[in-house]
Amino acid sequence: MTWLVVGLGNPGDQYAATRHNVGQMVVDQLIRRHSIKLSSHKSRTDIAAYKLNNGEHSIIVAKSKSYMNETGGPIKALANFYSVEPENIIALHDELDIAFASIRSKVGGGDNGHNGLKSMTSAFNTSDYYRVRLGIGRPMGQQDPADFVLKVFSKVEQKDLAEFIQRGADVVESLITQGLERTQTAFNS
User: Fold this and answer.
1) Where in the sequence is the domain holding 29, given as residue range(s)?
2) Contact assessment for residue 70 and residue 119, using Cβ atoms and an 8 Å cutoff
3) CATH no. for residue 135?
4) Are the C-beta atoms of residues 92 and 6 closer than 8 Å to each other?
5) Residue ranges, the chain, pLDDT below 70
């Protein structure tokens, strides 16, 4: 079975280390874990592939080259190219309403104002794809959430960031090999 794992984020070095790109950081962790390399795909994405469980699962990891609010088109083109249905897509994204370093997984639901999810749901005409919600917390005080997500993690958060990203990669592979219920029991915090 083929799975498409999409790290939502913005392209470019200026965004790479920001909270909004935490989903792409998890994709980067999967790439390191499996010693694979990204290559450019005609769908305006960078992709890499590997197998799990002795080849039982084929995984394509992807990072869109378009901005967050335009993610849906490239991901839909990639899914069409590999004949992957929404029920075999995992979107990794930052989540303001979950405490920093907490992770929750689910299928479907609203976009909660997240432009990447909004774009994907519009492109696929369904919200019934997996989400790995990577908690970044809410900004303190009066800071605009739109500004907050485009900032790098604080020095305090950076101490726990590597472990958080590692767990995000674990959640992805658990969803694929163990299913949603077992993954939620093991990782939802």
Assistant:
1) 2-187
2) yes
3) 3.40.50.1470
4) yes
5) 189
DSSP for 47-98 reads: EEEEEETTTTEEEEEEEESS-GGG-HHHHHHHHHHTT--GGGEEEEEEETTS
In 82-142, DSSP assigns E strands to: 89-95, 103-107, 130-135
pTM of the model: 0.96
- pLDDT the model gives residue 189: 64
Domain count for the chain, please give it.
Answer: 1
Catalytic residue among 20, 41, 93, 114: 20
How far apart, in Å, are the Cα atoms of 116 and each of 93, 160, 184? Answer: 8, 25, 23
Can 20 be counted among the known catalytic residues? yes
Q: Are 91 and 131 in contact (CB under 8 A)?
A: yes
Q: What is the CB neighbour count within 10 angstroms for residue 141?
A: 4
